[in-house]
Amino acid sequence: MIFGECFALPFCDKEFDISICQDVFMYLNKEEIIKSIQELIRVTSKYIIFSTIDRDSDNAKQDINPDDLRKKSVFLYSKKDYIDLFCAHGVKLFKDNIFPVKWDMAVIFKVL
């Protein structure tokens, strides 16, 4: 097992064909989110599977899904914000709504 930070991944450029990032970003601040996006893209050669609780999700509401760590989170982006951020850093939205759940965002990005 390799331990590291998502905003400073201990891997070579394009080391993975596919990277998966699930339910991490809602615990990061804005700077860490940007660095994490850049790192995911750096270590991935083909696709990034990305899933998180976005700002507009029912799961982001503390009365539905209590989470003390997420409550202290500095910032939550909307689904559109996350997609725009990834695309601004060199990927293309490949498939939207990949999981049959309506309360979290789940997408696949193609690395260009």
Describe the fold and architecture.
25% of the residues lie in helices and 25% in strands. It contains three helices and four strands. A four-stranded mixed beta sheet has the order 1-2-4-3. The mean pLDDT is 87.
Q: Could you give the count of β-strands?
A: 4
Helix content: 25-40%
Can you identify the CATH class?
Alpha Beta
Q: Kindly name the structural category.
A: alpha+beta
SSE order, one letter for each helix or strand: EHEHHEE
- CATH second-level architecture: 3-Layer(aba) Sandwich
Could you name the CATH topology? Answer: Rossmann fold
Order of the strands making up the biggest sheet: 1-2-4-3
CATH superfamily membership, which one? Vaccinia Virus protein VP39
Mean pLDDT figure: 87
Task: List unreliable stretches of 5+ residues.
Answer: none
Distance between the termini: 29 Å
Number of domains: 1
List the helices and strands and how they pair.
Elements lengths: L15 E7 L7 H14 E9 L15 H4 L7 H10 L2 E5 L9 E7 L1
Parallel strand pairs: 1-2
Antiparallel strand pairs: 2-4, 3-4
Question: Can you describe this structure in just a few lines?
Answer:
By secondary structure, this protein is of the alpha+beta class.
What attributes does this structure have?
112 residues; alpha+beta; Rossmann fold; 4-stranded mixed beta sheet; 3 helices; 4 strands; 25% helix
